């Protein structure tokens, strides 16, 4: 848990500060033409996403789940309704008008829909006391919560792979962004399914 929490803290420390001033000029995502409210949807996505990523780290912490189940339930409600669901909706809207090309935009919308669907399925399962199903859906929801972090982490690798083949700077950025987005979604889905399918370790 400690390394994961540290990675999330570094990611938030890098990603969030430019948007605390509410100055559109400091945005790292260029606003598409004809969508004046893009920046405010982006700020909402980042705000709700910050709640989601902090909340999900607490949710997957075994010690907290085991020793403080009431806290786990309360944080879970915050994660679902003040984090994942609104952030996923904002991500879908932003992705539909992504300035990084149609492929990245389509992937952003698909990832947002998966995040929304997984989270709702996990919430519905726990309401019906289907605990095993709840765990499975929430592992997948956790994976999609990490999508932005993962895509940023994979960007340098994508640039290194693409750079020898693409000379135009704008094309290089779009191609590397597309590759990192594809790798992020696929790796998270595969890793989460592997985690769910793996054989349990021998009990200590």
UniProtKB/TrEMBL annotation:
<keyword id="KW-0472">Membrane</keyword>
<feature type="transmembrane region" description="Helical">
    <location>
        <begin position="76"/>
        <end position="97"/>
    </location>
</feature>
<keyword id="KW-1133">Transmembrane helix</keyword>
<protein>
    <submittedName>
        <fullName>DUF2306 domain-containing protein</fullName>
    </submittedName>
</protein>
<keyword id="KW-0812">Transmembrane</keyword>
<feature type="transmembrane region" description="Helical">
    <location>
        <begin position="103"/>
        <end position="123"/>
    </location>
</feature>
<dbReference type="InterPro" id="IPR018750">
    <property type="entry name" value="DUF2306_membrane"/>
</dbReference>
<feature type="transmembrane region" description="Helical">
    <location>
        <begin position="172"/>
        <end position="196"/>
    </location>
</feature>
<feature type="transmembrane region" description="Helical">
    <location>
        <begin position="39"/>
        <end position="64"/>
    </location>
</feature>
<feature type="transmembrane region" description="Helical">
    <location>
        <begin position="144"/>
        <end position="166"/>
    </location>
</feature>
<dbReference type="Pfam" id="PF10067">
    <property type="entry name" value="DUF2306"/>
</dbReference>
């Amino acid at each position: 848990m400690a390394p994961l929490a540290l990675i999330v803290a570094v990611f938030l420390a890098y990603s969030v500060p430019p948007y605390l001033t509410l100055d559109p000029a400091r945005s790292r995502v260029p606003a598409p033409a004809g969508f004046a409210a893009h920046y405010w949807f982006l700020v909402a996505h980042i705000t709700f996403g910050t709640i989601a990523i902090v909340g999900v780290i607490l949710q997957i912490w075994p010690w907290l789940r085991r020793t403080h189940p009431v806290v786990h339930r309360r944080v879970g409600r915050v994660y679902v309704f003040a984090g994942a669901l609104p952030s996923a909706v904002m991500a879908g809207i932003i992705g539909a008008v992504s300035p990084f090309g149609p492929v990245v935009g389509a992937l952003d919308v698909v990832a947002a829909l998966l995040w929304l669907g997984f989270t709702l399925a996990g919430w519905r399962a726990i309401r019906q006391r289907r605990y095993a199903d709840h765990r499975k859906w929430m592992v997948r929801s956790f994976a999609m919560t990490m999508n932005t972090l993962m895509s940023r982490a994979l960007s340098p690798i994508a640039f290194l792979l693409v750079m020898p083949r693409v000379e135009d700077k704008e094309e290089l950025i779009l191609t590397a962004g597309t590759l990192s987005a594809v790798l992020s979604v696929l790796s998270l889905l595969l890793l989460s399914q592997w985690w769910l399918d793996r054989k349990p370790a021998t009990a200590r």
